[in-house]
Design goal:
Blueprint: E1 3-13, E2 18-23, E3 36-41, E4 44-56, E5 59-64, H1 70-74, E6 80-84, E7 105-108, E8 111-121, E9 126-132, E10 137-141, E11 147-151, E12 156-159
Parallel strand pairs: 7-12
Antiparallel strand pairs: 1-2, 1-6, 2-5, 3-4, 3-6, 4-5, 7-8, 8-9, 9-10, 11-12
Length: 166
């Protein structure tokens, strides 16, 4: 079963262990329908049943079973929230999940530059971490000025300028 990252635990809220969640897609309503989540950080993964979730302000508060104090909740700060892909928000035409970018081949014209190994949050845009076929790694801003066609079915991402991968 494919899973995707849909959010990140930011901090705690209140005295009962509620977690403030940063929702990656902005689709806060989707979080209200899940009964469990997988939390991941580094090589660690934990499954939690959801006791309660609600929208507050522009974000989501989530109460996980077994996390009953602010101190217990703080141990989960920074953990990513993963759900089964089929339970995620539906996509519009031309949209894709960040997880779909992993493993895509970066191309410039007919030349293969490398493979996306990670997506990192940057100051202006997400950065594609690319393991180059020659040697080393480069970081490509995922912005329309640098990215051309993204073909998730073919697992290719076209860059518009070769120098961006140097």
């Amino acid at each position: 079963m494919d899973k995707i990252a849909t959010g990140r635990v930011r901090t705690t809220h209140g005295i009962h262990g509620y977690l403030k969640v940063q929702v990656f897609s902005g689709e806060n309503e989707n979080f209200l329908h899940h009964t469990y989540v997988m939390l991941r950080k580094g090589n660690s993964e934990k499954r939690y049943d959801i006791e309660d979730s609600k929208i507050q302000g522009g974000g989501v508060l989530m109460k996980l079973k077994g996390i009953d104090t602010p101190e217990a909740g703080k141990t989960l700060n920074g953990w990513e929230i993963w759900i089964p892909k089929e339970e995620s928000s539906p996509l519009e035409d031309g949209e894709f999940y960040q997880a779909d970018l992993y493993g895509c081949t970066i191309v410039y014209g007919s030349r293969t530059i490398g493979t996306v190994v990670s997506v990192i949050e940057g100051p202006q845009a997400e950065l594609l971490e690319v393991k180059k076929v020659t040697d080393g790694v480069c970081y490509i801003p995922f912005m329309k000025e640098y990215i051309g066609t993204v073909d998730i079915d073919e697992k290719t991402i076209e860059i518009l300028h070769e120098w961006i991968a140097e």
